[in-house]
Amino acid sequence: MPKRQWWNTIDDNRNKRRKIELNFDNIIKENVNPQGRSRSIEENKLLIQAIAYFQKNGMSLDQSLKECKKMFGGKYDTYKTLWSYYIETGDFNVSETHLKRGLETYKYCEISDLNENIIDGFIKFAFQYTVSNNTGFSIPDILAYFEHEHNSIIDSSTAQYLLHKYNFCWSQQSVYYGNEYERNRLKELKRFLFQYSHALALENKGTHVIVAMDESWANTGTSFDHSWLHICDNNTECIVCNKFIELANGDAKASIKKANTGKRIVFAHAITRQGLLADEEKNDEETKSYIMPSFQDLESLDQKINTCEYIIECVNDNARDYHQQMDFTKFIKYFENRLIHSCNNLNNGKKAIIFIDQCPFHMVCNGFPSTTDNKETIIGYYELHNIQSITLRRYNKDNVLGTVLTFDSKCFHKNPRLINPQNGGPSKDELYMYLFMYLKIKNPSELEPAVCKIAKKYNHLVLFSCPYNPSDMPIEYLNSYVKCNVKQRCHKKRTIEQLKIDVRNDFYGRELKNGLRQHRCVDAHMTNGWCKKCEYNMNYEICNILHENTKNIFNLWEENGEISLENPWIKVPKTEKTLKKLSDKFVIVIDDVIQSFFDISLWFVCFLIKK
User: Fold this and answer.
1) How far apart are CA 133 and CA 330, in angstroms?
2) Residue 345 is inside which H or E element, if any?
3) Distances (CA, A) of 463 to 214, 489, 569
4) How far apart are CA 185 and CA 467, in angstroms?
5) Distance separating alpha carbons of residues 485 and 505, to the nearest angstrom
6) DSSP for 486-533?
7) How far is 528 from 388, CA to CA, in rounded Å?
8) Which residues pair with 392 in a beta bridge?
9) CA–CA distance, 407 with 411 (Å, rounded to integer)
10) Which of 32, 351, 436, 561 is the most exposed place for a label (fewest CB within 10 A)?
11) Cα-based distances in Å from 382 to 107, 158, 434, 568
12) Are 459 and 351 in contact (CB under 8 A)?
C-alpha cells in the first residue's frame, strides 16, 4: 500500500471529536512485535489508529479487530478491550499488561507525579536488582517495578528521564564483525541472498520449509553486557551514591565487572516460521505444550528424539571457546539423530532447507583434507580416491611457465627440487590444489561438507549463511533471546543444573525472577517476526549493496539462474590472497588442460583455460 496519510474523525460516547493522523506503513512496521513482549503504550496508540482506519473504510468493528489480529498477532479479546477502553475514556495511555490486570487499579504518571518517596523506592529497586542479579536492569524492568509496586503506569520516555537525571548509563559494548563489504564477502553475500530467495520460493510452493539452526553457550556466572548501571564519581552530593551506601550498611559503592564466569554449557535448537522444531502436545486451539526429554536423554546423541533441543555441559578444561566442546563428532550425530530426524517427523511431510552458518565443524568434508593437514594426511586422500599421479607446470625465475611435470604416487613423499625437478616430488600446496581441482571436475560431491551429504540422503537441502552477517540469521535472535533471559536469572552460586533449567525455560517459557515479568515461550508469532526482520535487512542489502533496485528477497532468484540451492556446495579452500600467490608459482594440468584455480573476478567458481 503506498505511503500516505489519512485523517479520520471518531465519535466517542461523550460525543467528542478527535483527529487522528494515520500513517499505515508505520502502524504495520511498529506493531509486528517480533520479540514477543507485551505492546507498549506508544504501540497501542498505533493499534487504535489502525482499528479506526479499518472502520472508516467500511469494516465493522468485528472485522477490524480480526484484521488487526491477522496482521499484528496477539489476541482478539485484547484488541476489543483496548478499543472499548479508548471509546469510554478517550485515553490513549494504556499498555497491554494493564488491560489484562484491570484498569481501575492503575494510574498514568507524568514526571511531575513522581514524588520523593517514589524516587527513593526507584533507587532502592536499582540497588537491590543490581546486587541480587550481579547485573544492571532494563527499561521493561523499570516499567514492571512501577506497575507492581506503585500501581503506576509510566512510558519509556519518563523512564529514560529518570535514568539520565540520576546518572544511570547504558553500558553497551560494540561488536565488530570484520570488514563487511570487502570484495570476497560481497560475492559470498550475493550467493547467500540468491540461495535464500530460492529457499523462499520453495517454501512458498509448500514443498519445503526453512529450518534455522545454531549453537551457542552460557555460563553459570553470565552477567549483562547491555544494561543500565549507575556510573559516577561517587561524590558526596550524588543522591544515588549516598542511597546505595546507606542500603549497603555503610559500605562504599563497588563496581560490577561484566564477565562470563563459572561453568559453561553449550545449547542448540532449531526454529521454523511456526516456532521451535520440537515435539508438542496440543491441549486445545489456544495452548500447547512441548514434550521435553530429560537432560540425560538429550546428551545421548546416539538416541533419536523428535526435538532439536540440545544442552550439554562443557567438560573440557581448556574450553574457553565452546567450539572445543561442540566438535564435529558431536555435531554430526546431533545433525542426523536430532535435526534431520525432527525434520522428517515434525514438518508434515515437507522437505527441509536447513539454514546454518559456516562454523568450522559445519563445513567439515569427509572426502577432502582441511587446510591445516600435513602432507602425509593429504597423500592419504589420494589413496582414498585412487589417484595415482599428478600433473602440473611450474613457473621459473623468469616467470616463464615450464614443461609438464608428472609425479606418480611413489614420488609424493619426495621434496621438490629446483634442479632436475622431475627427480623430486610435489609440494604440499601442489598436492592440495591438484586434489581439489581433480575432485571438482571428476567427483564434485566429494568436496561437499558432510552435512550436505546427510541432508541429501533424506531429500533435504542445506543453506549456508554469509560469514559474519548475523543480521540475516533469525536463529541469532533466538540465541540472543535465550542468553538475555539467562543473564536476568543470574545469581550467586548458580549450579550447572540450574543453568540448564534456565536455558530450557527460556525456550519453553516461565516466570522471571521476583515474578516481575513473564518470559514467553518461543512461539510462531515470535519466530515469524524474527524471519521478517532478517528479510527486511536482506532487502536493504539487495538495494544498497547489490544495487538491485527492482528486486527484493522474494523475487531475486529466477528459474534457470546460475546460483541455486540444488547445485553442489563447493567452497574454495584457500583465501584469495593465498590463491594469487600459488597461481604465480604453478598451474594444475588435468586431461591436458590447464586448470586455473585463481581468478580475481570469481570466488566460488573455478574456470578452465585451454592449453
Assistant:
1) 33
2) helix 341-346
3) 12, 34, 9
4) 8
5) 9
6) HHHT--TT--HHHHHHHHHHHHH-EEPGGG-SEEPP--HHHHHHHHHH
7) 53
8) 405, 588
9) 6
10) 561
11) 77, 69, 10, 21
12) yes
Q: Where are the domains of the chain?
A: 6-105, 111-166+226-247, 184-222+260-364+466-539, 375-447+572-609
Please give the DSSP secondary-structure letter assigned to residue 37. Answer: P
Q: What type of residue sits at position 374?
A: N
3-class DSSP state of 456 = helix
Describe the crossing of helices 116-133 and 239-247 by its angle, rounded to 10 degrees. Answer: 60
Predicted confidence at residue 599, as pLDDT, reads 46
Looking up cell 582414498 gives 384
Minimal CA–CA distance to 492: which of 174, 132, 157?
132
Cell numbers for 10: 471518531
DSSP state of 419: S
- What is the H or E stretch that residue 215 is in? strand 208-219
Residues paired with residue 213 on neighbouring β-strands, in sequence order: 270
- The residues near 153 (Cβ < 8 Å, ≥ 6 apart) are 41, 93, 94, 95, 98, 106, 107, 108, 109, 146, 147
Residue 335 DSSP code:
I
Query: Is the distance from CB of 553 to CB of 193 less than 8 angstroms?
Result: yes
Give yes or no for residue 408 having a pLDDT over 50. Answer: yes
Residue type at 339? L
Determine the distance from the C-alpha atom of residue 503 to the mean position of all C-alpha atoms in its chain, rounded to a whole number: 16
- Is residue 272 a contact partner of residue 234, using CB atoms and an 8 Å limit? no
In terms of phi and psi (left: phi > 0; alpha: psi -120 to 50; beta: otherwise), the region of 509 is left
Residue 276, SS3? strand
Return the residue matching grid coordinates 496482521. Answer: 71
Give the amino acid at 607: F
Helix (H, G, I), strand (E, B) or coil at 20: strand
What is the DSSP code (8-state) at residue 415? P
Q: Cα separation of 531 and 276, whole Å?
A: 13
Using one digit for the tens of pLDDT, what is the confidence trace for 539-574?
A: 989 998 888 889 999 999 988 878 888 888 888 788
What would the grid cell of residue 458 be?
Answer: 533424506
pLDDT digits (tens, 9 = 90+) for 22-50: 444 444 444 444 334 456 666 677 777 77
